[in-house]
Amino acid sequence: MNKKTGFIIAGIVTAFAVLVGVSLLQKRPQEDSVDYRQYKLNVITDLASKNNYKDLDLHSVLSATDASGNLPENINGDKDAPVKIYEYADYPCSYCGLMNPVLNEIVEDYDGQVAVVFRSYILSYHEKNGVPAASAANAAAIQGYWKKYKDLLFENQDDWFYSTGADLQEQLEEYFEEASDGKGDLEKFREDMKSEAVEKKIAFDYGIGDKLEIGGTPWIYIDGNWIENKGSDGKGLSPVEYGKKIRAVIDEKLGR
Is the whole-model pTM more than 0.70? Predict the structure, then answer.
């Protein structure tokens, strides 16, 4: 190989490396998309404490207002379904993850008769990834992908539970691309995660949970009545058993 040929090959290799590097940088979330204030739960709780829920029926589907960032309720199923399950859940919560397919199945089986109104309630010990996950889910909701996105979060809990910073952000973005089948606007998703609207929505949901004094997650109401996750023996129920208990209440409401 002569010197001229060597220079040409080296130039091609360098150009290829630069192109690959640029591609990876575009794919990898930038630092300014990672470090933002929503990672702090105290910001959410402080904002929630300023909301006025006095004249609201907290056991109903609430209209989007400035207090909720003008973002609507996240609903799995028909918003006009005669029976609505109000679920307060935390995306890193393992039991919430186990209940997710159970509740999905209930919505499917009752075919338009039941819907789940999902409100995120971040537990203090889940702050480091619970707030970013809720931000991501609501950002996905803005583009119409909330249902698929929350399913992916729950299905993949073990993969992102201990992730932080850029690693977590990259995973959340990958789930968005999967939930949107590659059709979503990734840059908008990133910006919405950091937006005031999403921050307000998370705080609005959290504040409702505080007003209702929920004791953990998942916490489920139907027609304002708490469906306790305990059997007649006082012991906790498995997700399948809890699902059967919820179905019994639904059947009673529907007159079955």
Answer: yes
